[in-house]
Amino acid sequence: MFTFETVVRLQHTDAAGLIFYSRVFDFAHAAYEAFLDEIGNPLPTALAAHPVVLPIAHATADYRAPLRLNDPLQIELWVETVSTRSFELRYRFLKEDGTLAAGVRTIHVAVDSESGHSTRLPDRLAEALRARQARGT
Amino acid sequence: MFTFETVVRLQHTDAAGLIFYSRVFDFAHAAYEAFLDEIGNPLPTALAAHPVVLPIAHATADYRAPLRLNDPLQIELWVETVSTRSFELRYRFLKEDGTLAAGVRTIHVAVDSESGHSTRLPDRLAEALRARQARGT
Amino acid sequence: MFTFETVVRLQHTDAAGLIFYSRVFDFAHAAYEAFLDEIGNPLPTALAAHPVVLPIAHATADYRAPLRLNDPLQIELWVETVSTRSFELRYRFLKEDGTLAAGVRTIHVAVDSESGHSTRLPDRLAEALRARQARGT
Amino acid sequence: MFTFETVVRLQHTDAAGLIFYSRVFDFAHAAYEAFLDEIGNPLPTALAAHPVVLPIAHATADYRAPLRLNDPLQIELWVETVSTRSFELRYRFLKEDGTLAAGVRTIHVAVDSESGHSTRLPDRLAEALRARQARGT
Q1: Chain B residues interacting with chain C (CB cutoff of 8 angstroms)
Q2: Which residues are CB-contacts of B136 (< 8 A; sequence separation ≥ 6)?
Q3: N or C terminus of chain D with fewer C-beta within 10 Å?
Q4: φ, ψ for residue D50, nearest 5 deg
Q5: Coil, strand, or helix at residue C61?
Q6: In whole angstroms, what is the distance from residue D108 CA to residue C124 CA?
Q7: Does the model's ipTM exceed the 0.85 cut?
Q8: pLDDT tens-place string over residues C92-110
Q9: Parallel, antiparallel, or unpaired for β B56-63 and D72-82?
């Protein structure tokens, strides 16, 4: 299981004293990028010039327990499905005591950056994702 | 139909040249707050001290068309359901030419800020939401 | 004087109940982009491919009065100086009662996006900035 | 010297392909909070209810070298001055090869959260800051 550790900082909270709801998507994406680094497929730095981009087509969050300033967070990320042209990731946000604070899903689709149309996942990425999926991550 | 107008600015974009995915949730929440203002139930400024808070329990976004720097956006917001202890809002993000760029759902639950437990929606808010729902907004 | 109106929303606040300090820079940049639109020099949408980019070399904020959730803000923006290769903007953040909440300065430099070196401001932009500066904006 | 390590992620970049300027203030504040944790004075979680708050009165950033997606960052933080009612922190943002990417200054003032007036820094915090300052951090 790939895990990513972070802490809820002031900039993630709001005047209700808890984390602002969209910040869990920011945290999930940071975890996703660290995961891509680990599987040897980091986001290309010249993304806008890259032939294939991987925009998110669908994102969901379920909020289960309040997250507050200074809360350490462990984010578990795994590959739920890998298709020819898309993949789905799942994330569990765990507090220090193991409480599930939030669950997130993101569906990423491969898009040809010239035409704007859906395309096949790059082979190297698809293989790396399937290898992690087979390992249960 | 309640509508909220905004523009995609540099801070909402990322190195892929499009809007960063979690920014649609930021826009949706700004629209929600403007809607609360309009129905006479603005978010209280001393939220952390308020007896009832309305955290989001579930949030979903479907991304349909790319949003780029300088794109004007019209966000339509309507009340989908109002229950005793929660309500659901829907949002449609429309580009200038009427293209649907994204759809968002948020489910808000009433929570007693002392006990942390689910509670009834404040009457005034529930009535205002039902009135808008009846009007088809 | 160019003015830009906005409202402090939940996403701009933090658990101290006030606006998070870096949000004034986000607001200032949104005002700057609206100003560029007005003077007929909007930020190009394909920024990463543009020959001249205008990164910020220096930014300062002075915080004078607290900004809270729901506070309407009027941001006044003017051109302080225009040089061959850079320009400086100033911003005043005014609350509804006219109180000065914050002052911001940003210095923008023209950079050749190929070489990464400083270059001349595009003529059209320099003229538009000087015209506004002459008008006292 | 207190150091804080992070990585530029997609959410920190913009359509120009570089880090969005206000994100350095977000990074600086995360470093500041990690520093407060280390010196035994973490930001209180119930900030809005705390007798003394420490808003930022002044913030400055100088941008020296471009920061791009995936750039690892080392942020060095030190206490520049400690006064009766305020303190100043400095931050240097270093890239992997030691290049200075940005310098930041923040001035924090102690404010009585009831009256909204300036007050003395809490003794424990002032002592911890002076101890670090004496060590050259």
Answers
A1: 7, 9-11, 15, 17, 26, 29-30, 33-34, 37, 42-43, 45-48, 68-70
A2: B1, B78
A3: N
A4: -80, 140
A5: strand
A6: 41
A7: yes
A8: 999 999 999 999 999 999 9
A9: unpaired
* Diameter of chain A measured on Cα atoms: 48
Report the distance separating Cα C94 and Cα C100, nearest Å.
Answer: 5
Give CA–CA dist D72/C26, Å, rounded. 23
C24 neighbors C61 (Cβ within 8 angstroms): yes
Task: Give the N- to C-terminal CA distance of chain B in Å, as an integer.
Answer: 5
| Coil, strand or helix at D107 | strand
Q: Which residue of A has its CA nearest to D19?
A: A45
Q: How many CB pairs under 8 A join A and D?
A: 51
Amino acid at the residue C18: L
Runs of H (alpha helix) within chain C:
23-38, 123-134
Contacts of B34 (CB under 8 A, 6+ apart): B2, B4, C7
Provide the shortest C-alpha distance from residue A55 to chain B (in Å): 8
Per-residue confidence band for D127, with pLDDT thresholds at 50, 70 and 90 = very high
Amino acid at position C46, single letter:
A
Q: Which chain D residues are Cβ-neighbours of A42 within 8 angstroms?
A: 70
Using CB atoms, which residue from C16, C58, C66 is nearest to D48? C16
Average pLDDT rounded to a whole number, residues D23-40: 97
Q: In whole angstroms, what is the distance from residue C43 CA to residue C1 CA?
A: 20
CA pair distance D78, D74, nearest whole angstrom: 13
Residue range A89-135, pLDDT digits in tens: 999 999 999 999 999 999 999 999 889 899 999 999 999 999 999 98
Identity of residue B75: I
Cβ pairs bridging A and B (under 8 Å): 77
Dihedral of alpha carbons C114, C116, C119, C121, sign: positive
Distance from the Cα of C87 to chain A's closest Cα (Å) equals: 28
In this model, does residue D115 exceed pLDDT 80?
yes
Per-residue pLDDT at C47: 77
**Which distant-in-sequence residues (6+ apart) come within 8 Å of C6 by Cβ?**
C27, C30, C72, C73, C75
Taking the C-alpha atoms of residue D7 and residue D126, their distance in angstroms, rounded to an integer, is: 31
* Tokens encoding D88: 């100043």
Question: Do residue B14 and residue D16 have CB atoms under 8 angstroms apart?
Answer: no
